[in-house]
Amino acid sequence: MPTIKKTLSRLFDPIDIAPLVFFRIAFGALMLWEVWRYFEYDRIARYYVEPTYFFYFWGFDWLSPLPGDGMFWLFYGLGLLAILIMLGAFYRPAMVLFWLAFTYVFLLDKAQYLNHFYLVSLVSFLLIFIPAHRAFSVDAWLRPGICSQQVPQWSLWLLRGQMAVVYFFGGVAKLNPDWFAGQPLREWMGARTDFPIIGSLFTEEWMVYLFTYSGLLLDLFVVPFLLWRRTRPFALLLAITFHLLNSQLFNIGIFPWFAIAATLIFLPPSTFRPRWFPLPTASLPDLSGSRQRWILAAMALYFAVQIVLPLRHFLYPGDASWTEEGHVYAWRMRLREKDGEITFYASNPQTGTSWPLDVAQILNPRQLDQMKDNPPMILQFAHYLAEPLQAVEPTIRIHAHVPMSLNSRAPQLMIDPSADLSREPDSLFMADWIVPLTQKPYPHPPVPTILLSRRIESGLILMNIAEAAYPLHDVVIRVGAQALTAQDFGVTTLEPGECVKAFLPGTDLGRIFVPCNEVGQLASLASSSQQETVVFESGPISQPCQAASCVFTRHD
Fold it and tell me: What pTM does this model have?
């Protein structure tokens, strides 16, 4: 305990303000550049004026873009605030306004989510409390009383801690089978053989694995190596090289330059002070014990949240790169490449009809591309599609057919086609309508997979959701005291893209065989309240199913 108290007390010791001044100027300059990019590439109109629908972050569905030319004026304001921050003029009010305005823009549309925009929002919040304006600033020139060449150490470690979180959890997220197998870097590097000098090597496996494991190790260990004097030059060189390569390989905007600026603050503070401007001898005013405790408590709370958020995906089953549950705010960067398509259907059980919905008339290409492989966004949009339809006919249902491939895996359905998405709650709880990922990492062949659904009245439906045929000849399904076999389903094999529906023995509804992905075949799907345990008893499968739908794979 005495050691911990001593370490914490050192956070209030004086330290040179020079690295904070450097970062304040770099932050303002980068934000001004980003604002210019939005004007230059016409992103303000395309992202926030022309769309008629915006995907919301959970809890922020009440936000909407400013009307008329409001968004353009907001970005003009962000540019002005960036200049004030860079100059250190009216620094604290400028930082507060910048944080509010930038975070507002960030939260307007989930389709525009970028990890580095989330980082900018966090850092701009931290800079409100960091006295980076007390030297080399207009404020210090106008108000000599606030001028100081030293600040408490916690103000620098606050920024360092934030970057440590980004690096470390970016590395933790890479500890998965896909990354270890070189995916998705293999695909991205293979598309950039035109890269200067080394591009011709990007299709070589040794180069893929060099980039893969170098990125992993750098994320996990760059911060401790930057803090250790003996390894600092090597770590700094690797980090800068890494970010410069990223800036050329990927279209990720200002992030590489922002990361370089933030990484440099791990250097000793004296690095940023010109030799001709030595640090004067001075001391900081002593803070009362209660004020120090409040500062430490606030820092502890902030970093507790920053540690918990990237780990929350462990509360959900499955791969977060597939389900997207717990993916945002978690520094899960450059981990996934999804390839597939989406079709929304509306069905009317009263008339027995269903029809596809044209979403391209509502969403712009970027929104559609971001939504099609993101189950939470798919659910949001299904609710939006259902609203005008259900106002006319309340029994209308919305379904989605979403074949998808993750990191070059064999494709499979991502959403249960029998689920009425319009009536599924938009919450933070686990979504049982997201089909679990069953396909194995590249280059494994397709895994035969069927989805058993009880989301129909008085019956069961089996869907082949993968690209491999699924034999049913040795499958027995027991529902309570009743048993269903391939004879009851009328087929012995389910081909890719097919499904079969069987009604329970004793009903007079008969049997039908339908292709799942044909328009008009989802109309009879409805919610079912029956919760009997279903067990596959023969063949290679034997496990219970008590949910509305379950996935089963075959490994002969």
Answer: 0.90
